[in-house]
Amino acid sequence: HPGFDIQAVRRDFPILSERINGKPLVWLDNAATTHKPRQVIERISHFYAHENSNIHRAAHTLAARATDAYEHAREVVRRFIHAPDAREVIFVRGTTEAINLVAKAWGGTNVGEGDEIIISHLEHHANIVPWQQLAAAKGARLRVIPVDDQGQIRLDEYQKLINDRTKIVAIGHVSNVLGTVVPVKQVVEIARRRGITTLIDGAQSIAHTPVDVQDLGADFFVFSGHKIFAPTGIGVLWGRREVLEAMPPWQGGGNMIADVTFEKTVYQPLPNTFEAGTGNIADAVGLGAALEYVERIGIAQISRYEHALVDYGMAQLASIAGLRLIGTVPGKASVLAFTLDGYSTDEVGQALNAEGIAVRTGHHCAQPILRRFGVETAVRPSLAFYNTFDEVDQLVREVRKLAARRR
Ligand code: PMP
């Protein structure tokens, strides 16, 4: 039993009533993006119908409404991730932009020749490439925490990698390919003891597990709105206030300045320092509505239900002959990845789509971890709290049929 009214939840998401190839849609591609409840869709529509304006700059009523709505969303984000101060919440385009911002603004100042940056073998390309670019620009070195055969990072190897040249540890909270929940609190604690800066990529954890940035202890926590029932094009960089205040701005322009002359610009304080130009106001408001929606259900309830669903799915898939599960760490979040003997991953994806079941196939923007397990691509069903045991059964039934046909 999910601990919430799952049928009522499903009715809140209009797209879940779509039919695909004559079959009810079974959306198991939540790690790529999640669907939006009508509460979010209606909130954005309300914004454009009644509140639309640029923020901060004008003295008229709509500017006040838009500013209030935008700042309310910032406060909701603060509450959702348990940040101490809403000024530490920076709206960005998504996880990718947040990590690039930190790599450029923080890394540009704090990383030099011979320094080291630690990531893990589990990372999404978004938490690899910006650090690689920074390392190349600065003559620094990228070090990678290896994973074991189940798909968990090796803490013993991490302890060996970390040293006096380590400047930052950037680590994913949940793997988007394996579903591994990484012990990020421990990773952060080990770094902090040595005064090393830390960043957590929360793209795959935000919708599946409670997040308390103060408890996690990192300097940065980043996520994308679209992975948590909010629109695309909006995301969050949370940073510890003193760390953000010591960083130079990333982009320059309107909104982030207090005073400009041709000789000199004085910047706005946080959060505006890092919000140059007109932001994605309506979608930030939509993100606030999405987080309020999740708060009403309860992220702890969601997490408990999803873990039961994932464990069930893992057990069912494991019983299919010729199916290889990739990533078998107990307590996985959301993601089930596998390959099937006799089929390309695309063939599996297309066969499932014919039955209305949407899963991602391919390299999932995380080639290194797939190669660690000896494959280039995988089939990746991924769950959210609106998925049901019945939908998992449908997935398993169709995969079992495919497996039987090749034997
Ligand atoms: N990190 C992880 C772990 C992800 O799963 C994703 C999205 N697949 C990203 C980063 C990048 O997120 P976005 O494309 O929304 O910027």
CATH architecture of the largest domain: 3-Layer(aba) Sandwich
Strand content: 15-25%
The major pleated sheet works out as:
7 strands, mixed
**Could you say what the CATH topology of the largest domain is called?**
Aspartate Aminotransferase, domain 2
Q: Stretches where pLDDT falls below 50 for ≥5 residues?
A: none
Number of domains: 2
Strand order, largest beta sheet = 4-10-9-8-7-5-6
Alpha plus pi helix count? 14
Description of the molecule:
Belongs to the class-V pyridoxal-phosphate-dependent aminotransferase family. Csd subfamily. Residues 26-395 form the Aminotransferase class V domain. The protein has 407 residues and is α/β, with parallel strands linked by helices. It folds into two domains: 6-30 and 298-405, Aspartate Aminotransferase, domain 1, CATH 3.90.1150.10; 41-296, Aspartate Aminotransferase, domain 2. The protein is built from 14 helices and 17 strands. The strands form six sheets. The protein has a seven-stranded mixed sheet with strand order 4-10-9-8-7-5-6, sandwiched between helices. Strands 1-2 form a two-stranded antiparallel ribbon. The radius of gyration is 22 Å and the shape is globular. Bound molecules: 4'-deoxy-4'-aminopyridoxal-5'-phosphate.
Topology:
Elements: H1 6-12, E1 19-20, E2 23-24, E3 26-27, H2 38-51, H3 61-80, E4 89-92, H4 95-110, E5 116-120, H5 129-138, E6 141-145, H6 155-161, E7 166-172, H7 184-192, E8 197-201, H8 213-216, E9 220-224, E10 235-239, H9 241-245, E11 257-260, E12 265-267, H10 281-297, H11 299-318, E13 323-326, E14 337-340, H12 345-354, E15 357-358, E16 360-362, H13 367-372, E17 378-380, H14 389-405
Parallel strand pairs: 3-15, 5-6, 5-7, 7-8, 8-9
Antiparallel strand pairs: 1-2, 4-10, 9-10, 11-12, 13-14, 16-17
Bound molecules: 4'-deoxy-4'-aminopyridoxal-5'-phosphate.
The site of 4'-deoxy-4'-aminopyridoxal-5'-phosphate has 13 residues, from helix 4.
